Every structure is written in C-alpha cells, then in structure tokens.
Amino acid sequence: MVVQPRKLQQPRTGTLAAIVHAFGTLTPMRLTQDQTREIVRTVSRLTGGTADVYLFGSRLDDAARGGDIDLLLESAAPIGLLQRARIKMELESGLGLPVDIVEHVRNRPATPFQTLARARAKKLENPL
After folding, report:
1. Cα separation of 105 and 111, whole Å?
2. What is the DSSP letter of 63?
3. pTM of the full predicted structure?
4. Quick check: 36 pLDDT over 60?
5. Torsion angle of the four alpha carbons 44, 104, 124, 45, in this order, in degrees rounded to the nearest 10
6. CA 99 → CA 3, 57, 93, distances in Å?
7. Which of 11, 19, 59, 97 has the most CB atoms within 10 Å of its CB?
8. 41-81 pLDDT per residue, tens
9. How far is 102 from 125, CA to CA, in rounded Å?
C-alpha cells in the first residue's frame, strides 16, 4: 500500500494580506511595551543613541516561559566593557530580570554566534 501525502489547504491570500497590511509583520515577543521602552531608552541613553537594539532568544517565543532577556547591541564603534556592564546592571535593576548582552560592531566580521543571533532577532524600537 502506497500512502499519498495529503495536500494542505493554502490560507486565503486576501485574509493574510489584510492582516499583514493592518498589523505589519507579526512577530511574537514576550516583552511588554513598558519593558521595551525601558530597554530602548536605557541603551540609547548609555550609548549616546549610537546602538540599535535587537531581541533574540527565548523571549521571541510566546510559547516559552520565564527566561532572561537576550539583547544584541549593534553599533558603528565598539561599546566598552564598562559601558556594557552599566547597561546590563541598569536594565536588570529596572526590569527585575536577568539580561544578557551581545555586541556587534557594524562593518566588522560577525562571529558565528552574532550571525545566528542577528538572523533570529527582532529590532526593538520605542513604542508610541
């Protein structure tokens, strides 16, 4: 007996297009608007607004529970070790959650981990 694969129904294009048009790209994320605002403002203040902030890791999975906040900071110039430590300490104090920070300097070769983190990351922007 040969088993034929089932054909899956395609979603109605009009419905999906309407959702994407209304809400933009849908990316699950387990951060509140207040947490996102706190992260973006803290990083901006402590880097002089020179770093983009990306969330990666388990906080992008709505089905996961708990976990730390994994951030990738991308900037044109290196962020010093003491500056990264200050960002981490202020965020952990303000959010009440553990924070891990990975840094990548633009226009420099990325490590395999930085590449993976960036590929699976969502850019954080200050919510309105």
Report:
1. 11
2. T
3. 0.76
4. yes
5. -10
6. 49, 11, 10
7. 59
8. 999 999 999 999 999 999 998 888 878 999 999 999 999 99
9. 18
Task: Let me know: does 71 contact 103? Beta carbons within 8 Å.
Answer: no
Cα–Cα distance for residue pair 60/30, rounded to 1 Å: 6
Beta pairing class for 51-56 and 99-105: unpaired
Stated as kind and residue range, the H or E segment containing 125 is: none
Largest CA distance in the chain: 67
Cβ pair 91, 69 in contact under 8 A: yes
Token code pair at residue 31? 């951060």
Other beta carbons less than 10 A from residue 15's beta carbon: 9
Q: Yes or no: say if 14 and 22 are a contact pair by the CB < 8 Å rule.
A: no
Radius of gyration of the CA atoms of the chain, in A: 18
Cα 20 from Cα 97, distance rounded (Å):
32
Q: State yes or no: pLDDT of 25 exceeds 80.
A: no
Taking the alpha carbons at both ends of the chain, their separation in whole angstroms is: 59
Place of tokens 């803290």: 42
